[in-house]
Design a protein that fits this description.
51% of the residues are buried. Helix content is 30%, strand content 18%. With 546 residues, it is α+β, with helices and mostly antiparallel strands.
Length: 546
């Protein structure tokens, strides 16, 4: 997912590996220490940015998904151990056909926050809405494992041909194109979340723009939304598993300034924060401090339709001119590691770590001499004696400005190129990327699921999240074949070949694989930080009172 942000066919081993990663790395931030005096089960967090959309079929970014994950339940939900189990979500059980193609979900008795029953029709409607070409869902491709889904989305089929059907109010049947054991995990993902048809018919494209324009099936409801300032969640009294939810209120601020963020944590206004790099030393010896590697990469994304960055050699020049070691040691300072490939370490391959199987690097870090040669070559290929004005697009937070300025300085020092910076609000940045209104952008992508494909399929031609507008038929062929390849080794080889092509064409220039440092007040218990997906899981969190 788009950062401030993900399946295919490797059998039950993959599903088990996914559970293991979540259980091992998404652990509780519990501490044992004195009580803060907060006896009202109120948790205070910082969201940093305004969510671009809370329409579940249109959301693609981690900020929106952070909220949607807590206010909506899907057929499945990862439990506190990071596992998908029958009864963890709105499906109390399911049956899978012997050929692995047909899933029949049996829904529990549950209600929307407006009191209406949650039905199988709500899922059929939501999934087909995501696939409807008129919806223009960037994540529609996540449903292409369903028979007839891709055809409908591309205008070559109809909604009736999509093999998802409500057999009755409590039974949903889905038929896939090929065995996809990780499909159960996908049914917890945002695009697969249900939507009550009457709500969309009432509000249309305004669904999710305000608290009263969405109904809720998850642990919490949105009670207040002061746009660009704060969001308040309240416990959903109609939630089917409300007895497991101890928090009564979750307050989200939207603080972008790092100094203000830290002050709010120190004075107990916030109960947990992600620690900015410049403040690591302040907290690293505290019992409240933790850090962990994430399945997330950050990269410079090039608009391959631009007059300059349509040239691969110029894209490579800007990539090789970045000093990643200096970037993570002097700029992020949070334990992140230099990235010279796309798929982060820790993602499973055929028989081990995909990163080790594919090779650690595709280029040399800070290769200034080669970068200069490539820039010269690319400019000659374009007939340019001088580069036009080039702009780097980025977010408007303290961290984003610092990161963008570091890149700007490296390109000036190593290539002699003056790059302008355009810092905008997160949702504006996402909109500009989607419309192609940029030259370069510093962006991130976090895994939606525990497989290399989550970092690779988005770069297929016409993929909704391919905002670099990259296209290579050979790449597309490899990704399409990998999606339905039941031979695990062959599939892994296809993904390795695809990554090689991507790095040879370089529509994105990898910069670092992200790590995250965070602090949590000792009275906050069972607040979980998943390795991928949303930033938090607080369904089971509570405030300990002494």
């Amino acid at each position: 997912m788009k950062g401030h942000k993900k399946i295919v066919i490797i059998g039950l081993v993959l599903l088990m590996a996914l559970s293991a990663v979540l259980a091992g790395c998404g652990g509780s931030a519990s501490n044992s220490a004195s009580n803060s005096g907060n006896d009202k089960q109120v948790l205070n967090l910082n969201l940093t940015q305004e969510p671009p959309t809370l329409d579940p079929q249109k959301a693609t970014d981690v900020v929106s998904i952070d909220i949607l994950t807590e206010v909506l339940d899907g057929l499945t939900r990862y439990d506190k151990d990071g596992k998908i189990k029958p009864g963890s979500g709105l499906a109390k059980s399911w049956d899978i056909s012997n050929d692995g193609l047909t899933y029949t979900f049996h829904l529990r008795d549950a209600k929307w926050s407006d009191g209406d029953p949650i039905t199988a029709q709500d899922f059929e409607y939501a999934w087909k809405r995501a696939l409807d070409p008129n919806t223009a869902s960037q994540y529609a491709y996540q449903l292409f494992y369903i028979k007839g889904a891709e055809e409908y989305n591309s205008g070559k089929g109809s909604a009736d041909q999509v093999a998802v059907k409500a057999l009755d109010d409590k039974t949903l049947q889905v038929t896939l194109k090929a065995p996809t054991p990780q499909f159960l995990g996908l049914t917890s993902f945002v695009t697969y979340l249900p939507l009550e048809k009457s709500v969309y018919e009432k509000y249309g494209d305004k669904v999710g723009t305000d608290p009263d324009k969405l109904v809720y099936s998850g642990p919490f409801v949105i009670s207040q939304w002061n746009h660009e300032q704060s969001i308040i969640l309240k416990k959903n009294k109609d939630y089917w598993d409300s007895s497991s939810v101890k928090l009564q209120t979750v307050n989200f601020s939207m603080i972008k300034d790092n100094n203000t963020l830290v002050q709010n944590y120190d004075n107990n206004t916030l109960d947990s924060i992600f620690v900015p790099g410049d403040y690591i030393d302040k907290y690293k010896n505290s019992s409240e401090y933790s850090d962990k590697a994430l399945a997330t990469n950050w990269y410079v994304q090039f608009n391959t339709k631009s007059p300059v960055f349509k040239n691969a050699d110029i894209r490579k020049a800007f990539t090789l001119a970045i000093d990643r070691k200096a970037f993570v040691e002097q700029v992020t300072k949070d334990g992140s590691i230099p990235a010279e490939a796309v798929v982060p370490p820790g993602i499973p391959g055929y028989n081990g770590d995909f990163r080790k199987e594919a090779g650690e690097t595709y280029f040399k870090d800070n290769d200034v001499a080669q970068a200069k040669e490539l820039l010269k070559k690319g400019m000659a290929e374009l007939g340019l004696s001088k580069l036009p004005t080039i702009t780097l697009l980025g977010d408007d937070t303290d961290n984003a400005k610092k990161y963008d300025q570091a890149l700007q300085q490296m390109w000036k020092q190593n290539l002699g190129v003056n790059v302008q910076i355009q810092n905008v609000a997160f949702k504006v940045r996402i909109d500009m990327m989607n419309k192609g209104n940029y030259d370069m952008v510093f962006a991130g992508w976090g895994a939606d699921y525990n497989d290399p494909l989550t970092f690779l399929d988005m770069w297929e031609t016409n993929n909704g999240n391919n905002t670099a507008f990259y296209s290579n038929p050979e790449y597309d062929k490899l990704i399409d074949e990998a999606k339905v390849n039941g031979d695990l080794k062959s599939r892994n080889d296809q993904l390795i070949q695809a990554e090689k092509i991507l790095m040879n064409d370089m529509p994105i220039g990898p910069v670092y694989f992200r790590a995250r440092a965070f602090v949590v007040k000792p009275y906050v218990k069972d607040l979980y930080f998943p390795t991928f997906g949303s930033d938090w899981e607080f369904k089971w969190a509570y405030i300990q009172n002494n």
